[in-house]
Design goal:
2 helices; seven-stranded antiparallel β-sheet; alpha+beta; 7 strands
């Protein structure tokens, strides 16, 4: 099962975490606080944490075929919410089933 780690350096990490979770909660299971959130997508859970320097998303994807969809669903929504900062998405790293990191 691939594990994606996405990171965005921003002083607005908490704001984006809450916006993402609230938005997704309209259609799928989501829970959040100011600095931690979880969204249960059909292809796996995304766990978000915010700190003073940014936002981190850990996405446990169920299948290699869903990796790009998982990245895209977060990036597209984040770009919409963070358009004033010119943000297009997270910087992603992937740990594959064999445990090898890939950019």
């Amino acid at each position: 099962m691939p594990i994606l780690i996405g990171r965005l350096e921003t002083e607005h990490g908490q704001k984006y975490l809450v916006q993402l979770c609230k938005h997704f909660a309209h259609k799928i299971e989501a829970s959040w606080s100011d600095d931690h959130g979880r969204v249960d997508f059909v292809y796996g859970p995304a766990v978000m944490t915010a700190d003073p320097l940014g936002l981190t998303v850990r996405f446990d994807v169920d299948d290699l075929g869903h990796v790009e969809d998982a990245k895209s669903v977060i990036d597209r929504h984040l770009a919409r919410f963070a358009h004033r900062e010119g943000i297009e998405g997270l910087i992603w790293t992937e740990t594959g089933p064999e445990g090898a990191d890939t950019p």
